[in-house]
Amino acid sequence: MSVEFLMRAILIASLTLLTSACGGGGGGGSDSPAAEQTGTGSDTSDNEDESAAEEEGTAEPYVFTRTQFEYLPFTDGTSIQYNDGSTASVTLDTNEFANKSVYAVVNNGTTLYLSTTATKMALHGVDGSIEISGNGISTTVEKLRFHDKTSDEVISIPLLYSTTAEDTEPSSTPIQAIGKATTSNFGTRNINELSVSSKFVNTELTSLTYGALQARKLTLAISGMADAVITEIFVTFTDTLYLTSGIGIVKHQSTDYGIDNEITSLTGLPTTIWFNNAAGTPTIDSESDPTFSIAGIGAISSTTYRVANIDALNETPWLTIQEDTASNTFNVDMTTHEDLPTTLTSVEVIFENKETNKHLSGNVTIQPLN
Length: 370
Prior knowledge:
Elements: H1 3-15, E1 36-37, H2 48-56, E2 78-82, E3 87-92, E4 103-107, E5 110-116, E6 121-134, E7 137-148, E8 154-158, E9 173-174, E10 177-183, E11 188-205, E12 213-227, E13 232-244, E14 248-254, E15 259-267, E16 273-278, E17 281-284, E18 293-294, E19 298-299, E20 305-307, H3 310-314, E21 319-324, E22 329-334, E23 345-353, E24 359-368
Parallel strand pairs: 16-24
Antiparallel strand pairs: 1-8, 2-3, 2-15, 3-4, 4-5, 5-6, 6-7, 6-8, 7-8, 7-10, 9-11, 10-11, 11-12, 12-13, 13-14, 14-15, 16-17, 18-19, 20-23, 21-22, 23-24
Protein backbone atom coordinates (compact mmCIF):
# COMPACT_ATOMS: atom_id res chain seq x y z
CA MET A 1 0.00 0.00 0.00
CA SER A 2 1.44 3.40 -0.98
CA VAL A 3 2.02 6.06 1.65
CA GLU A 4 -0.20 8.41 -0.36
CA PHE A 5 -3.05 5.92 -0.18
CA LEU A 6 -2.52 5.46 3.56
CA MET A 7 -2.50 9.15 4.41
CA ARG A 8 -5.49 9.95 2.20
CA ALA A 9 -7.40 7.03 3.66
CA ILE A 10 -6.61 8.14 7.20
CA LEU A 11 -7.88 11.65 6.57
CA ILE A 12 -10.99 10.52 4.73
CA ALA A 13 -11.85 7.73 7.17
CA SER A 14 -11.59 9.99 10.17
CA LEU A 15 -13.43 13.02 8.91
CA THR A 16 -16.22 11.26 7.04
CA LEU A 17 -17.36 9.91 10.36
CA LEU A 18 -19.38 13.12 10.51
CA THR A 19 -22.24 10.90 9.39
CA SER A 20 -22.59 10.39 13.13
CA ALA A 21 -25.45 12.56 14.20
CA CYS A 22 -25.84 15.17 16.80
CA GLY A 23 -28.97 16.36 18.50
CA GLY A 24 -29.92 18.41 21.45
CA GLY A 25 -29.29 21.60 23.18
CA GLY A 26 -29.17 25.07 21.67
CA GLY A 27 -26.83 27.16 19.45
CA GLY A 28 -26.58 29.71 16.62
CA GLY A 29 -24.33 31.86 14.42
CA SER A 30 -22.25 31.56 11.25
CA ASP A 31 -18.53 32.21 11.55
CA SER A 32 -15.47 30.69 13.17
CA PRO A 33 -11.76 31.42 13.66
CA ALA A 34 -9.10 29.43 11.85
CA ALA A 35 -8.10 27.08 14.68
CA GLU A 36 -8.88 27.26 18.34
CA GLN A 37 -7.83 25.94 21.71
CA THR A 38 -10.13 23.37 23.24
CA GLY A 39 -12.65 25.48 25.17
CA THR A 40 -13.84 25.15 28.72
CA GLY A 41 -17.37 25.17 30.02
CA SER A 42 -20.48 23.02 29.87
CA ASP A 43 -23.94 22.91 28.33
CA THR A 44 -25.37 23.10 31.85
CA SER A 45 -24.76 25.61 34.62
CA ASP A 46 -24.97 25.63 38.39
CA ASN A 47 -28.27 27.15 39.47
CA GLU A 48 -27.97 26.67 43.24
CA ASP A 49 -27.78 30.43 43.78
CA GLU A 50 -30.83 30.91 41.56
CA SER A 51 -32.80 28.29 43.50
CA ALA A 52 -31.86 29.89 46.80
CA ALA A 53 -32.90 33.29 45.50
CA GLU A 54 -36.25 31.89 44.38
CA GLU A 55 -36.85 30.53 47.88
CA GLU A 56 -36.16 34.00 49.27
CA GLY A 57 -38.33 35.65 46.62
CA THR A 58 -35.42 37.67 45.21
CA ALA A 59 -34.72 35.74 42.00
CA GLU A 60 -33.58 37.71 38.96
CA PRO A 61 -35.71 37.34 35.80
CA TYR A 62 -34.66 34.33 33.74
CA VAL A 63 -32.30 35.23 30.88
CA PHE A 64 -31.49 32.66 28.21
CA THR A 65 -27.88 32.44 27.04
CA ARG A 66 -27.22 30.47 23.88
CA THR A 67 -24.38 27.98 24.35
CA GLN A 68 -24.58 25.79 21.25
CA PHE A 69 -24.85 26.22 17.51
CA GLU A 70 -28.47 26.24 16.31
CA TYR A 71 -27.79 23.81 13.47
CA LEU A 72 -25.61 21.38 15.46
CA PRO A 73 -26.89 21.12 19.05
CA PHE A 74 -25.98 18.29 21.43
CA THR A 75 -27.67 16.69 24.42
CA ASP A 76 -25.93 14.06 26.53
CA GLY A 77 -27.56 10.62 26.31
CA THR A 78 -29.49 11.13 23.06
CA SER A 79 -29.22 9.63 19.59
CA ILE A 80 -30.38 9.85 15.97
CA GLN A 81 -31.20 6.92 13.72
CA TYR A 82 -30.45 6.80 9.98
CA ASN A 83 -31.89 4.94 7.01
CA ASP A 84 -28.76 2.78 6.65
CA GLY A 85 -29.65 1.12 9.97
CA SER A 86 -26.99 2.95 11.99
CA THR A 87 -27.50 4.80 15.27
CA ALA A 88 -25.30 7.65 16.45
CA SER A 89 -25.26 8.16 20.23
CA VAL A 90 -24.13 11.38 21.89
CA THR A 91 -22.43 11.65 25.30
CA LEU A 92 -20.61 14.49 27.03
CA ASP A 93 -16.96 13.39 27.17
CA THR A 94 -15.64 13.07 30.73
CA ASN A 95 -12.23 11.61 29.92
CA GLU A 96 -9.67 13.28 27.66
CA PHE A 97 -11.86 16.35 27.06
CA ALA A 98 -13.45 16.51 30.51
CA ASN A 99 -14.97 19.88 31.47
CA LYS A 100 -14.46 21.23 27.94
CA SER A 101 -17.97 20.77 26.48
CA VAL A 102 -16.73 18.22 23.95
CA TYR A 103 -19.19 15.50 22.96
CA ALA A 104 -18.31 11.95 22.01
CA VAL A 105 -20.43 10.79 19.08
CA VAL A 106 -20.21 6.99 18.81
CA ASN A 107 -21.15 5.22 15.60
CA ASN A 108 -20.20 1.70 14.48
CA GLY A 109 -17.30 1.38 16.95
CA THR A 110 -15.78 4.77 16.20
CA THR A 111 -15.87 7.83 18.44
CA LEU A 112 -15.96 11.32 16.96
CA TYR A 113 -15.25 14.27 19.29
CA LEU A 114 -17.19 17.44 18.43
CA SER A 115 -18.10 20.72 20.09
CA THR A 116 -20.16 23.79 19.29
CA THR A 117 -20.68 27.27 20.67
CA ALA A 118 -23.21 29.92 19.72
CA THR A 119 -21.22 30.66 16.55
CA LYS A 120 -18.83 27.74 16.00
CA MET A 121 -18.59 24.04 15.17
CA ALA A 122 -15.34 22.14 15.72
CA LEU A 123 -13.82 18.67 15.34
CA HIS A 124 -11.45 17.67 18.18
CA GLY A 125 -10.46 14.16 17.16
CA VAL A 126 -11.40 10.57 16.39
CA ASP A 127 -10.85 7.22 18.17
CA GLY A 128 -11.59 3.84 16.64
CA SER A 129 -10.43 0.79 14.76
CA ILE A 130 -10.43 1.76 11.11
CA GLU A 131 -9.03 -1.08 9.02
CA ILE A 132 -7.05 -0.07 5.91
CA SER A 133 -5.47 -2.53 3.50
CA GLY A 134 -3.91 -2.60 0.04
CA ASN A 135 -1.00 -4.15 -1.85
CA GLY A 136 -0.68 -6.83 0.83
CA ILE A 137 -0.30 -4.32 3.67
CA SER A 138 -2.89 -3.52 6.35
CA THR A 139 -3.08 -1.14 9.29
CA THR A 140 -5.57 0.21 11.79
CA VAL A 141 -6.07 3.90 12.55
CA GLU A 142 -6.54 4.09 16.31
CA LYS A 143 -6.45 7.80 17.05
CA LEU A 144 -6.50 11.19 15.31
CA ARG A 145 -5.87 14.52 17.02
CA PHE A 146 -5.07 18.07 15.96
CA HIS A 147 -2.18 20.03 17.49
CA ASP A 148 -1.07 23.63 17.58
CA LYS A 149 1.93 24.11 15.28
CA THR A 150 3.89 26.08 17.89
CA SER A 151 2.96 24.67 21.30
CA ASP A 152 1.92 21.16 20.17
CA GLU A 153 -1.14 21.52 22.40
CA VAL A 154 -4.23 19.55 21.37
CA ILE A 155 -6.68 21.88 19.62
CA SER A 156 -9.76 21.62 17.39
CA ILE A 157 -10.40 22.12 13.69
CA PRO A 158 -13.21 24.57 12.82
CA LEU A 159 -15.92 23.21 10.53
CA LEU A 160 -17.58 26.50 9.65
CA TYR A 161 -16.44 29.80 8.23
CA SER A 162 -18.41 32.85 7.16
CA THR A 163 -21.15 32.15 4.63
CA THR A 164 -20.04 32.05 1.00
CA ALA A 165 -22.56 33.01 -1.69
CA GLU A 166 -24.16 30.11 -3.55
CA ASP A 167 -22.72 31.13 -6.91
CA THR A 168 -19.12 31.52 -5.73
CA GLU A 169 -16.45 29.06 -4.73
CA PRO A 170 -15.08 29.34 -1.17
CA SER A 171 -11.44 30.24 -0.72
CA SER A 172 -9.11 27.96 1.21
CA THR A 173 -8.07 29.37 4.60
CA PRO A 174 -4.81 28.16 6.22
CA ILE A 175 -5.07 27.10 9.86
CA GLN A 176 -2.26 26.96 12.40
CA ALA A 177 -2.53 23.25 13.12
CA ILE A 178 -1.17 19.85 12.20
CA GLY A 179 -2.96 16.52 12.21
CA LYS A 180 -1.47 13.52 14.04
CA ALA A 181 -2.77 10.10 13.02
CA THR A 182 -1.73 7.11 15.15
CA THR A 183 -1.81 3.73 13.39
CA SER A 184 -1.31 0.19 14.65
CA ASN A 185 1.86 -0.54 12.69
CA PHE A 186 2.97 2.66 10.93
CA GLY A 187 3.42 4.82 14.02
CA THR A 188 2.14 8.40 14.04
CA ARG A 189 2.06 10.41 10.82
CA ASN A 190 1.72 14.19 10.57
CA ILE A 191 -0.54 16.07 8.18
CA ASN A 192 0.93 19.56 7.77
CA GLU A 193 -0.15 22.87 6.20
CA LEU A 194 -3.82 22.27 6.94
CA SER A 195 -6.41 24.52 5.31
CA VAL A 196 -10.21 24.61 5.36
CA SER A 197 -12.82 25.95 2.96
CA SER A 198 -16.59 25.78 3.35
CA LYS A 199 -19.95 26.99 2.06
CA PHE A 200 -23.05 27.18 4.25
CA VAL A 201 -26.24 27.85 2.30
CA ASN A 202 -29.99 27.37 2.67
CA THR A 203 -31.66 24.34 1.11
CA GLU A 204 -34.83 22.27 1.40
CA LEU A 205 -35.07 18.52 2.01
CA THR A 206 -38.54 17.62 0.77
CA SER A 207 -38.16 13.87 0.16
CA LEU A 208 -36.95 12.63 3.56
CA THR A 209 -38.83 9.63 4.94
CA TYR A 210 -38.67 11.39 8.30
CA GLY A 211 -40.51 14.42 6.91
CA ALA A 212 -39.69 17.59 4.98
CA LEU A 213 -37.10 19.83 6.67
CA GLN A 214 -35.50 23.18 5.98
CA ALA A 215 -31.72 22.80 6.23
CA ARG A 216 -28.36 24.46 5.77
CA LYS A 217 -26.03 22.70 3.37
CA LEU A 218 -22.42 22.67 4.58
CA THR A 219 -19.91 21.85 1.85
CA LEU A 220 -16.55 21.30 3.49
CA ALA A 221 -13.01 20.73 2.22
CA ILE A 222 -9.97 20.03 4.42
CA SER A 223 -6.55 19.61 2.86
CA GLY A 224 -2.91 19.33 3.90
CA MET A 225 0.52 17.90 3.17
CA ALA A 226 1.09 14.40 4.53
CA ASP A 227 4.54 13.76 6.01
CA ALA A 228 5.80 10.69 4.16
CA VAL A 229 9.30 10.68 5.73
CA ILE A 230 11.25 11.41 2.55
CA THR A 231 8.63 13.51 0.77
CA GLU A 232 5.32 15.33 1.27
CA ILE A 233 2.07 14.35 -0.41
CA PHE A 234 -0.94 16.63 -0.90
CA VAL A 235 -4.13 15.12 0.52
CA THR A 236 -7.65 16.51 0.51
CA PHE A 237 -11.10 15.64 1.83
CA THR A 238 -14.50 16.94 0.75
CA ASP A 239 -17.85 16.33 2.38
CA THR A 240 -21.43 17.60 2.40
CA LEU A 241 -23.57 17.81 5.53
CA TYR A 242 -27.20 18.90 5.77
CA LEU A 243 -27.96 20.49 9.14
CA THR A 244 -31.42 21.37 10.46
CA SER A 245 -32.19 23.89 13.19
CA GLY A 246 -32.81 22.19 16.53
CA ILE A 247 -31.83 18.71 15.27
CA GLY A 248 -28.33 18.59 13.77
CA ILE A 249 -27.09 16.32 10.98
CA VAL A 250 -30.17 15.12 9.10
CA LYS A 251 -28.41 14.03 5.92
CA HIS A 252 -24.82 13.24 4.96
CA GLN A 253 -23.31 12.72 1.52
CA SER A 254 -19.68 11.88 0.77
CA THR A 255 -18.47 10.86 -2.67
CA ASP A 256 -15.01 10.16 -1.22
CA TYR A 257 -16.34 7.55 1.19
CA GLY A 258 -19.52 6.43 -0.54
CA ILE A 259 -21.87 7.66 2.21
CA ASP A 260 -25.44 8.77 1.54
CA ASN A 261 -27.77 8.48 4.54
CA GLU A 262 -30.56 10.47 6.13
CA ILE A 263 -32.47 10.76 9.39
CA THR A 264 -35.33 8.38 10.21
CA SER A 265 -35.98 8.96 13.93
CA LEU A 266 -34.84 10.58 17.19
CA THR A 267 -34.25 9.10 20.64
CA GLY A 268 -34.37 11.20 23.81
CA LEU A 269 -35.16 14.39 21.88
CA PRO A 270 -38.37 16.34 21.19
CA THR A 271 -40.41 14.96 18.32
CA THR A 272 -40.53 17.27 15.30
CA ILE A 273 -43.90 18.98 14.77
CA TRP A 274 -45.08 19.85 11.25
CA PHE A 275 -47.63 22.42 10.11
CA ASN A 276 -48.99 22.95 6.61
CA ASN A 277 -49.52 26.32 4.94
CA ALA A 278 -52.58 26.05 2.70
CA ALA A 279 -53.06 29.35 0.87
CA GLY A 280 -52.02 31.39 3.89
CA THR A 281 -53.88 29.31 6.48
CA PRO A 282 -51.65 27.16 8.74
CA THR A 283 -52.97 23.82 10.04
CA ILE A 284 -51.32 21.08 12.06
CA ASP A 285 -50.18 18.18 9.89
CA SER A 286 -52.29 15.03 10.25
CA GLU A 287 -49.21 13.06 11.34
CA SER A 288 -48.24 15.57 14.05
CA ASP A 289 -49.43 16.46 17.54
CA PRO A 290 -49.27 20.11 18.71
CA THR A 291 -48.08 19.02 22.18
CA PHE A 292 -44.30 18.81 22.51
CA SER A 293 -43.21 15.31 23.47
CA ILE A 294 -40.25 12.95 23.50
CA ALA A 295 -40.70 9.71 21.58
CA GLY A 296 -41.08 6.74 23.90
CA ILE A 297 -41.26 8.98 26.99
CA GLY A 298 -44.28 11.24 26.62
CA ALA A 299 -45.18 14.91 26.79
CA ILE A 300 -42.56 17.40 27.96
CA SER A 301 -43.65 18.53 31.42
CA SER A 302 -43.79 22.24 32.21
CA THR A 303 -43.13 21.41 35.86
CA THR A 304 -39.71 20.08 34.83
CA TYR A 305 -38.85 22.23 31.80
CA ARG A 306 -39.13 25.83 30.64
CA VAL A 307 -38.99 27.09 27.05
CA ALA A 308 -35.56 28.68 27.21
CA ASN A 309 -35.69 30.76 24.02
CA ILE A 310 -39.30 31.90 24.46
CA ASP A 311 -38.39 35.60 24.08
CA ALA A 312 -36.97 35.00 20.61
CA LEU A 313 -39.92 32.78 19.68
CA ASN A 314 -42.37 35.46 20.81
CA GLU A 315 -40.88 37.74 18.16
CA THR A 316 -42.23 35.39 15.47
CA PRO A 317 -45.73 36.80 14.88
CA TRP A 318 -47.25 33.68 13.31
CA LEU A 319 -45.95 31.24 15.95
CA THR A 320 -47.38 30.71 19.44
CA ILE A 321 -45.99 28.41 22.13
CA GLN A 322 -47.97 28.25 25.34
CA GLU A 323 -48.01 26.27 28.55
CA ASP A 324 -51.17 24.31 29.28
CA THR A 325 -51.39 24.68 33.06
CA ALA A 326 -54.12 22.07 33.30
CA SER A 327 -51.95 19.31 31.81
CA ASN A 328 -48.52 20.87 32.55
CA THR A 329 -47.50 20.59 28.90
CA PHE A 330 -46.34 22.88 26.10
CA ASN A 331 -48.38 23.33 22.92
CA VAL A 332 -47.57 25.04 19.63
CA ASP A 333 -49.92 26.80 17.24
CA MET A 334 -49.64 28.91 14.11
CA THR A 335 -51.92 31.71 12.95
CA THR A 336 -52.61 33.49 9.70
CA HIS A 337 -50.24 36.42 9.28
CA GLU A 338 -48.73 38.40 6.43
CA ASP A 339 -45.30 37.07 7.44
CA LEU A 340 -46.36 33.41 7.49
CA PRO A 341 -43.66 31.55 5.52
CA THR A 342 -44.56 30.39 2.04
CA THR A 343 -41.42 28.26 1.80
CA LEU A 344 -40.26 25.32 3.94
CA THR A 345 -39.19 26.84 7.27
CA SER A 346 -37.86 25.26 10.48
CA VAL A 347 -37.76 26.88 13.93
CA GLU A 348 -35.70 25.73 16.92
CA VAL A 349 -37.46 25.41 20.28
CA ILE A 350 -35.10 24.93 23.24
CA PHE A 351 -36.32 23.33 26.45
CA GLU A 352 -34.29 23.78 29.63
CA ASN A 353 -34.52 21.59 32.71
CA LYS A 354 -35.30 23.88 35.64
CA GLU A 355 -33.15 21.88 38.06
CA THR A 356 -30.14 20.88 35.96
CA ASN A 357 -30.26 23.55 33.21
CA LYS A 358 -29.76 20.75 30.67
CA HIS A 359 -31.07 21.68 27.23
CA LEU A 360 -33.19 19.74 24.75
CA SER A 361 -33.57 21.24 21.28
CA GLY A 362 -36.71 20.58 19.27
CA ASN A 363 -37.93 21.55 15.84
CA VAL A 364 -41.18 22.98 14.45
CA THR A 365 -41.47 23.06 10.67
CA ILE A 366 -44.06 24.66 8.41
CA GLN A 367 -44.35 23.36 4.86
CA PRO A 368 -46.32 24.86 1.94
CA LEU A 369 -49.11 22.83 0.37
CA ASN A 370 -49.04 23.24 -3.40
